Structures
1.
Amino acid sequence: MIDNALELKGISKDFPGFKLNNISFSLPKGYIMGLVGPNGAGKTTTIQLILNMLEKDAGEILVFGKDNVESENAIKQDIGVVFDSIFYVDSWTIKDTEKAVSLFYEDWKHDVFNEMIKRFDLPQNKKIGELSRGMQMKLMLACAFSHNAKLLILDEPTSGLDPAIRDEFLEILQEYIKDGERSVLFSTHITTDLERVADYITFINRGELVYTGSIDELLGSYRLIKGRARDLTAELKKSIVGLRKTDMGFEGLMEAKKATQFKNCVIDGATIDDIVICMSKGGTR
Ligand SMILES: Nc1ncnc2c1ncn2[C@@H]1O[C@H](COP(=O)(O)OP(=O)(O)OP(=O)(O)O)[C@@H](O)[C@H]1O
């Protein structure tokens, strides 16, 4: 039995001035994984490699156990994609979109599409170019659900959406994975969305893998440490990642197991944002 929806093994891609270097991670079936990292970290490149929109220089990508290049056509039936901007033709209506997109999928379900369009309150006769961003996202999702995609790959789907639509969108993702067979890979800068719905996280910085694993484990492994300037000893400085001077003194990230030694400092739980910000500044773990 294949337990991973997606597996990347030692993926590399060289661009002039940028290298995605030896990225490995796996997304177990039935879970949501967030893909995070600062601008230019390599998130979209990773997604494009998974979708075989770019040719990798090294490594192997398996989708439901099948090689993503050798079995590209079969795999595409199982993957639903939502990008940060819509890739349908502006002058199409929603009906035209269904007609065109359904041709690519063997298992297209017209009833599911209609149900999603109703649920999302999408106007059938409006043109794609006239839909709001939130509506465009919902239309891409409706298409993904209508061909019974078992893996959703979303590149910054919630950026620019208002909080109410984001909330609805996250609920839909949670509902989608409920049966334990479907999975989501979701790149985002809005890490609070991940704290709400994701179980796993993969963090890339400057093309390098910083962390992949459970969110609980990541949050459990780090603490935010704050203190007065006079308490910042050389030993403490060495243990802090992403040290920042503040009005009160300093703050930064520290491994949870080390944090208890520094009694004069305030130790708080770290958020995913704290971890991404401090590690992006401070380099590696
Ligand atoms: N086709 C390409 N040719 C050359 N360089 C590229 C190409 N695509 C991406 N890059 C470079 O690869 C790096 C990573 O870009 P990528 O879009 O993967 O980052 P990202 O993590 O998705 O960033 P963002 O959060 O800003 O969307 C950047 O330096 C970018 O300029």
Note: The longest strand covers residues 4-15.
2.
Amino acid sequence: MTELSVNLNAVALLRNRRDLPWPSVTGLGRIALEAGANGLTVHPRPDERHTRRSDLPALRALIDTEFPEREFNIEGNPTEDFLELVEDIQPEQVTLVPDDPGQVTSDHGWNFKADGARLHKIVARLKVTTGARISLFADADPSQMAAAAETGCDRVELYTGPYGSCHDDPEAAARELEKLAQATEAAMACGLGVNAGHDLTVENLIPLVLRIPDLAEVSIGHGLTADALIHGMAETVRRFRRACGQDA
Ligand SMILES: CC(=O)[C@@H](O)[C@H](O)COP(=O)(O)O
Ligand SMILES: NCC(=O)COP(=O)(O)O
């Protein structure tokens, strides 16, 4: 079964339009977990335009006190600041993403052949200091997976942006889906678990999970938050859970 982690960055982005505490990032996170989300994801960037460092203790406490079997996933570029942040918060999963501070959103995975030695050290450090599962953001490129595994990570998160951007071109979407399937096969052959995320929607999630039933987790924010404006967060989470093949 594919698990669903709800990314709260888009909720935080809306909150940050004003110097006011709503919509509440923790409150929407609670509704998502009550509706059966398997976990929460945040991607705190250095400029704090989405989730802020100060959001993280409350989300940690929410999971610890009310949903102890669910997971907190923190994504980010592994600067020293980021590493100290995850060491403080102790998430169940850390997803390392190679994005620059000014980047609008994440748009590529690691080049494991070039960055492998650096990532190996970071993965080793986080395993000792957090005990978290470590996932590395990856393009759908089977030839990178052996080098990804050599870093010592547990999983890769396949970047699904190119697949998500084909929403009006079914043939191109089918080609991107095949690339994701081939990359999953290569990653699993190297002993890695596989997550996926970026620009996923209920519509493109259903064929993704049907084609790649071994996906361990999808993390979804933008498309899920857009649907939550229409259907409400609880009903939206149930829709995405059903798209993941879960009973909801
Ligand atoms: C790592 C990744 O794929 C991103 O999708 C990200 O976490 C989304 O972040 P934003 O919502 O901040 O663009
Ligand atoms: N890791 C991807 C993620 O958390 C959410 O990405 P998106 O759904 O906001 O594009």
Note: Residues 3-243 form a domain with the TIM Barrel fold (CATH 3.20.20.70).
